[in-house]
């Protein structure tokens, strides 16, 4: 199944089935606009990282549940995120 992930003003990320055009999951947890989302380059682990106006990055697992980690430290909106090859969620300190 081909999938896409979108970021939204409604504070959510949404996973889509590109074959049917239907949403398959909604990820909640951000407290403000979600500006950007990136998927791990290998696609195998199924991790995503989102950037938000709530000044956080959040890492999400393939099960489309709650965030597995929240990264803080920005003093203002986080506008974009990119993930490099070799990134592993288990290296993150869970918050």
Q: Top keywords for this entry?
A:
95 residues, mainly beta, 7 strands, globular
Radius of gyration: 13 Å
Helix-residue proportion: under 10%
Dominant shape: globular
Q: Please provide the ordered H/E string of secondary-structure elements.
A: EEEEEEE
Number of strands: 7
Strand order of the largest sheet: 4-5-6-7
Task: Let me know the largest β-sheet.
Answer: 4 strands, antiparallel
- Distance from first to last alpha carbon: 32 Å
- The poorly predicted ranges are none
Q: What structural class do helix, strand and pairing data support?
A: mainly beta
Helix segment tally? 0
Care to describe what's here?
- It contains no helices and 7 strands.
- The chain is mainly beta and 95 residues long.
- A hairpin with a 6-residue loop joins strand 6 and strand 7.
- The termini are far apart.
- The model has no long low-confidence stretch (mean pLDDT 84).
Q: What does the secondary structure layout of this molecule look like, with pairings?
A:
Elements: E1 3-7, E2 12-17, E3 22-28, E4 34-39, E5 48-52, E6 57-60, E7 67-71
Antiparallel strand pairs: 1-2, 2-3, 4-5, 5-6, 6-7
């Amino acid at each position: 199944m081909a999938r896409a992930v979108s970021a939204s003003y409604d504070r959510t990320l949404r996973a889509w089935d590109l074959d049917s055009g239907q949403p398959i999951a909604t990820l909640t947890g951000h407290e403000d606009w979600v500006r950007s989302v990136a998927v791990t380059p290998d696609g195998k682990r199924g991790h995503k990282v989102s950037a938000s106006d709530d000044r956080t990055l959040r890492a999400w697992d393939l099960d489309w549940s709650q965030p597995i980690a929240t990264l803080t430290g920005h003093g203002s909106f986080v506008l974009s995120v990119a993930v490099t090859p070799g990134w592993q969620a288990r290296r993150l300190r869970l918050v």
